Amino acid sequence: MTESNADEEISRKCLTYLAYDDFNVGPGKSNAEFDFRLVDYPFLEYAANSWFIHSRGEQVQRSVAYLFDKIWTTVESPKYLSWYQAFCDKTITSKRKYNAYQITNTPIVYYPALWGLHVLLERLIIDDANVNIQGGYYGQALQAASINQNHKCFKLLLDHGANVHAQGEYFGNALQAFASVGCEYMIKALLDKNCRVATEGCAYGNALQAASRSSHTGATSMLIEAGADVNARGGPFGYALQAAASNGHELTCESLINKGALVNAKGGAFGSALQAASLNG
After folding, report:
1. What's the 3-state SS for 161-222?
2. What CA–CA distance (Å, rounded) separates 174 from 180?
3. So where are the chain's domains?
4. What pLDDT digit, counting tens, does each position of 72-107 carry?
5. How confident is the model at residue 10 (pLDDT cuts 50, 70, 90)?
6. 266: β partners
């Protein structure tokens, strides 16, 4: 049996289990009720946390789509909530909680985008799923697609109206998310949609600092050419040059200086670029 065939078989068994009519009752209403469910349905925990790992191949997704459709209908559907209760999102918590589904309010397109399940994501979009609903650790599906550089999911969302300016959660906006992973293809696509390069906030302060901190020299150049201010102040590092220096990124530092970064600018967590570089060897 090939790896692809094995993945298809495991994915099918997991989704078949999650699609049982038993789960039409919805999620357990208390920790005790949920714990009893895990005892009564011993395969539930594995199925809930593993089906998507085995569903990343395009052919696998097409093969199990009919089962996915039975569960992934709306965020209020009983089977979807039963799955979500048994699923443990490690980006949110290391310990599953029975009421996590009530707290996180994650949109239905978010996880397929995060996991790169483009075939299944497209089915949701065709059924008019809203691609701009906020929710999840990364804030929206477009940002979720960026973190693992899921190009096909990203293009699907962008082609179906994903708001490139939407703000929220860890990265603040999609451009910061893509800049942090240095995906130049995605950055260019956002810039072609007139995404604002100077938007501030959240983890890195702005997209230029996100790219600089992660030593993505090509991405920093693209952002500066698109109008990002190399000396814009804000965020935890104060300036892009400090962000690059704090991780010892020599090439990125050199590129920023060549584009006019002020080497003696004061501020940020380290005080100056020299101190940032010195403190980190």
Report:
1. CCCCCCCECCCECHHHHHHHHCCHHHHHHHHHCCCCCCCCECCCECHHHHHHHCCCHHHHHH
2. 10
3. 1-104
4. 988 889 999 999 989 987 666 666 666 665 655 688
5. very high
6. none
